[in-house]
Write the structure tokens for this entry.
Amino acid sequence: MTIETRATGKAPAARTGGRRVAAPGRDGGRRRPSPLSTLAHLALAVWAVTVVAPLAWTVLASFKSNTEIFLGSPFALPESFHLGAFARAWSEANVGRYFLNSVLVVSFSTAGTMLLGAMAAYVLARYRFPGNRFIYYLFVSGLAFPVFLALVPLFLVVNNLGLLNTYHGLILVYIAYSLPFTVFFLAAFFKTLPEQVAEAAICDGASHTRLFFQIMMPMAKPGLVSITIFNIIGQWNQYLLPVALMQGRGADERYVLTQGIARISVAAGYEADWAALFAALTLSILPMIVVYAIFQRQIQHGLTSGALK
Amino acid sequence: MRHRRYPFIVGFLAAPVALYLTFVVGPYLQAFYLALTDWRGVSANPRIIGLDNFAQLLRDDRFWQAIQHHGILLVVLPAATILIGLFFAFMLNVGGGSRGGAMHGVWGSKFYRVVFFFPQVLAVVIIGVIFSRVYAPDRSGLLNGVLGWFGADPVRFLADSRLALWAIIGALVWQAVGFYVVLFSAGMASIPTDIYEAALIDGAGRGAMFFRVTLPLLWQTLQVAWVYLGIAAFDAFAIVQVMSVDQGGPDGATTVLGLEIYRNAFTYSQFGYASAMGVALFFLTITFAALALRVTRREAVEL
């Protein structure tokens, strides 16, 4: 409903023009939008265009020929919708492969993060034992350190373990670096769960492990969903760790999507095949649009919940 | 049950703690040691050289360039993002005025929120690559294509050392705004409507409403935003690496510490020196976080 079309006379805005504040219930005739509100709409629309334009332009350009990209107007439709760039991006530039690598790595790393993170957070939040606070703060202090500080030693550790340039090495590192926030967030969440349920379950003879998996985990579902989304998006978008750890001979086959796109971008510069670059970008953006369209509420909630803690 | 508590606790903590110690705590501690060595590559042996690396840092022009860029980022990125984000969040939540006593956002606020937030879902690398084309120095770039409609000459956004950093900041702000709109919106939604009603009855306009009601009650959220964006200002590695011309160029005009650490470690194999830079970055980040929390600390308005 807009302010303008509202028929019943509730106060339309804090101030519609003059200094007078419209009182509720007796303002039937005044429904002109205030200049401020028009301005607000204009600003919002301008930003919406600013957000959409580069993305729409990228998608459009992936159907164009190189000539059209260079000589045509940015938002002109291509003469015919070429699909060749997509074929090149998929088979020659290997976007498909990078995409699947990312799916593989992130599905294991997020699952592992959630399992190990929830286990640690649960024990730290609900069991008293010597060293509890120490371990908790050890995890939480990880939030204060920039990953760049650990970069060189991390590379050496992974190299010494023979895990350089392997999926499982990358997965383990993703999990380790996701633990601080996951533990911090979930420990706070597990603390809020009622004590009585746990006591009742223990009285009924449930083991601690069963209590965790069959009672506590389902009860913590809202928190788990938020932090799972947070981790999926964070790990999907990770760039520093893979460029540091997936290098060496034959590494390019194991690149994750972010690395792959960076590489295609460099290659496109040499070969001047911009259409293929745009196609590769489109192929990596479109799934995100679909996922975002479906889970938009959960994603917004998951990503911002960390900041609202 | 009690006797089986400890095996359970140990069983649940063993794997996460082991992983964390191996890949996170261990490397962080080692970094401080490596920073004191002249280690140059996997095969060589590290030799302790004390603070020589840090002395060399102070003479390194690239290092100072990077510090300067972090300074600019630290001011501009939070300021621009928070201002734009606050403005839009206020418009989306309160800007529509009051109806039936409750404050409303402008029409279409749900739609705007969904659109604004989307860039947050995309990887910084993908945004960097998109914007490296948006800023392309000829008519194939989106911006120069649009400028071409007005007959302007192409601008070399990323190749001009006076513009390059600003172009990159533009892309960062483009991505970040939506997140903060949603964050501030959530903060504003938790402000009780009767406070707005009371302000309305007292004759407050939208401006007064914003500065006297919304802003003070949103202070904590703003503080969080400021710290987050400040920490982001000390990163910027991914976007600079993929967006700038020859990685941090032209001529170091966009370089950041993360990039210098990466370059020294993996291009020049200067492990010791790269670690020293990491230590410097760590202290900068910590100092910022402590200062930010101290400076912005003020009486939170209790509801």
Observations:
- Chain A has a mean pLDDT of 81.
- The radius of gyration of chain A is 26 Å.
